Amino acid sequence: MTENKIDKILIASITPYFLEKGFLWFEENLAKIISARKSQSFFEDNTLVLEKDQSINLYELLRKIDELGYEKVQKVEDQGEFSVLGGLVEIFPINRKVAVRLDFLGNRIEAIEEIGAEIQDEEKSREILKKKLKSQKIYSDLKNLKIGEYLVHLDHGIGRFSGFEDFKETKYYVLEYGAKDRLFVPVGLERKLSRFVGFSEPKLSRLSSPVWQITKRKIKENAIKLAKELLEIEANRKISEREPFLSDNEFNKKIAETFEYEETPDQFSAIEDIKKDLEKQKPMDRLVAGDVGFGKTEVALRAAVQAVSSGAMAAILSPTTILACQHYNNFKERLKDFPINLAVLTRLQSQKEKEKIIQDLKENKIDILIGTHSLLSEKVSSLLFQKDGRGLLVIDDEQRFGVKQKEKLKQIRSKIDILSLSATPIPRTLHLALSSLKDMTLIQTPPEGRLAIKTFVLPWSKKIIKEAIEKEISRGGQIYYLHNKIETMVKIKDFVQKLVPKTKIETIHAKMGDKDLVRAISNFQNKKADILISTTIIENGIDLPNANTLIVDNASHLGLSQAYQLKGRVGRSNIQSYAYFLRGKNLTEKAKMRMKALEEMQELGAGYRVALRDLEIRGAGNILGREQSGSINKVGLNLYCQMLSDAVEKLRQ
Fold first, then answer.
1. Ranges in the chain annotated CATH 3.30.2060.10
2. 3-state SS class at 262
3. CA-to-CA distance for 28 and 138, rounded, in angstroms?
4. What spatial distance separates the first Cα and last Cα of the chain, rounded to whole Å?
5. Is the full-model pTM beyond 0.70?
6. Are 153 and 212 in contact (CB under 8 A)?
7. How far apart are CA 564 and CA 607, in angstroms?
8. What is the CATH architecture of 5-120?
9. CB-CB contact of 423 with 541 (8 Å)
10. 350, exposed or middle or buried, with CB in 10 Å at 0-12, 13-18, 19+?
């Protein structure tokens, strides 16, 4: 421990320029920096020089430290932090090996002394700080900010955004706190702000209250504890190694060449990320999040081919029979010229077919197996990935699988690679992804020519339904009509038939016999029916470029992510598509919020943000277990994720 009295200190701002410089550079260039402060605005704005016996207003000093990017904490432990207790200010400058304490008497600095332990590994310390800044930027998404929204300030806690104000040529975010206290945050320091996402209305404290620092410290400790647990779980996967998968071979080149579309930039990035993951010795665990119809299936296909061409097996796990069959047909078409053995296992296969698949698995004859929950049965799961212990498991639409089901698959082989696909990641996965425990790739660019779906949230009306159907039929298109009650489906079919008598209608739901289900979908796919009346069974797996109108009755009963997923059934081509969400009269507050959010999120690629928004509305769901719900609500999900991410990085270092 050091406690050396010093006469003068330099405090450098937390900017990329200074983060690249070492302690020695600051020591050698101290005189030049002090001189440059007089003539260069960059150095004047981004450094602070303090001397013993200097007179400086304490409030002004704290404001300057804040603007230099330092985080206010209860107890200073790491570089980039500062604390205040009465006339004592402690700060750990990024340009020093040790923290300092400023002892004020009124507005005069009576003493400056070094405190605490010296940094032993400068490079490691700097790396932690850089990653912390990066995570702050990730969580500080302030696009489309609206007056009245709650924001969390890293140093001062939760406030209500009341607009922007200009002062001395600088633009400021203005936040309101308890007792009408106001905080001005300069534009450019957004990384200290994040949107509040919680389970209930936050309580606003006064700016002078010590509550925020105490709360933040407690929750940081909670995050460190949780990070240790999560790292132990992940470490068990990380220590296992397997032979890398080949990427530069004939199969991989051919599958890329036979893709009839041009990859979008994000799709290309996802393919490259996975390729690099599979080339490593450590098994992959990556989440690819992308809106419905943005090309995740092609990403999965390329990964499967890379695994198979390296001698391993691939399994594609789908949540529904419809989706599994569609994947099988797509893969079959794309792989028709490849010596790759495909099989599909769902409730549509006869007992004889199932027995043959089991036998083929025993003899390692299947390269890619596509299936539903059937793959999770003991009989099947024990036979997967037998070739050499390696394998790729693709979990499609992972929000439909429970944590236990996914963990079961992880236990099958510690060496298998996992690729999760989702249009709206479940909160737990989203959280893990954002917190650097799972690699994540976002596909946010739509295919060329794709148009955003025009969305209408309206009161239920015969007239709207009739007009929407007739408009689509007149341009040669087809319609999905979603009615989520099996017992009244016949009644709805009669109602629609009377409304538009010349149309042909099919109905599907989960309790239908397999053959009837496949027949009805086949008729719709082959344009033998104009309207498909369905339950939420269509949420996954029906991909028809000709169906471009969706009508949902009783829309307020759907969860936000589910409503968004259903909307993705239309708009699969470059034809303008329409989604009508029809609601009843008496809506709960939560239902109103869901409907409002759906209207707000019309632009393509909004699915990822819907998942975040859904967290806010669902209430205290199981994000990381009930224990964490309270912590999340006190600081907001974004800051909690950031704390967890920082804790993970620190423990890893």
1. 5-120
2. coil
3. 34
4. 22
5. no
6. no
7. 7
8. 2-Layer Sandwich (3.30)
9. no
10. exposed
Q: What stretches of 22-178 adopt beta strand conformation (E)?
A: 47-51, 71-72, 81-85, 88-91, 99-105, 108-115, 150-153, 157-167, 170-176
Give yes or no for a contact between 538 and 569, defined as CB atoms under 8 angstroms apart.
yes
Amino acid present at 9: I
Residue ranges of the chain assigned to CATH 2.40.10.170? 129-237+629-652
As a whole number of angstroms, the distance between CA 610 and CA 616 comes to 10
Q: Which tokens belong to 505?
A: 């209608």
CA dist 614 and 594 (Å) reads 8
Mean pLDDT to the nearest integer, 635-647? 82
Which one is predicted more confidently, 637 or 606? Answer: 637
d(CA 294, CA 264): 9
Listed in order, the ranges of the chain carrying CATH 3.40.50.300 are 240-443, 454-603
Q: Are 455 and 303 in contact (CB under 8 A)?
A: no
Query: Are 370 and 323 spatial neighbours (Cβ–Cβ below 8 Å)?
Result: no
| H or E segment and range at residue 482 | strand 478-482
Q: Do residues 506 and 536 touch, judged by C-beta distance below 8 A?
A: no
Q: How far apart are CA 33 and CA 299, in angstroms?
A: 51
CA neighbor of 132 nearest in space, from 392, 532, 436, 458? 436
CATH number for the segment(s) 240-443: 3.40.50.300
**Token digits for 574?**
């470059």
Amino acid at 534: S
- Residues belonging to the chain: 653
**CATH code of the domain occupying 129-237+629-652:** 2.40.10.170
- pLDDT for 163-208, tens place per residue? 999 988 889 999 999 999 999 999 989 989 988 877 677 889 999 8
Report the C-alpha gap between 616 and 298 in whole angstroms.
32
Give the pairing of strands 81-85 and 71-72: parallel
Instruction: For residues 369 and 331, give the distance between their C-alpha atoms in angstroms, rounded to a whole number.
Output: 11
Structure tokens at 305: 């081919």
109: left (phi over 0), alpha (psi -120 to 50) or beta: beta
295 in Cβ contact with 447 (< 8 Å): yes
User: Mean pLDDT across the chain, nearest whole number?
Assistant: 85
Amino acid making up residue 375 = L
Within 8 A by CB and 6+ apart from 285, the residues are 234, 237, 417, 418, 438, 439
CB of 567 within 8 A of CB of 418? no
List phi, psi (to 5°) of 288: -110, 115
The CATH number given to 454-603 is 3.40.50.300
Q: Among 353, 338, 340, which Cα is nearest to 313's?
A: 340
Nearest Cα residue to 155 out of 100, 64, 81, 223: 81
Predicted confidence at residue 260, as pLDDT, reads: 84
Q: Which residues pair with 165 in a beta bridge?
A: 172
Token pair for 377: 């049965």
How far apart are the C-alpha atoms of 465 and 392, rounded to whole Å?
Answer: 45
Least trusted range by pLDDT, from 221-225, 428-432, 534-538? 428-432
The pLDDT of residue 435 is above 60: no
Q: Minimal CA–CA distance to 460: which of 542, 390, 556?
A: 556
Backbone angles phi, psi at 152, to 5 degrees: -110, 125
Average pLDDT of span 66-78: 91
> With contact defined as beta carbons under 8 Å apart, do 274 and 284 qualify?
yes
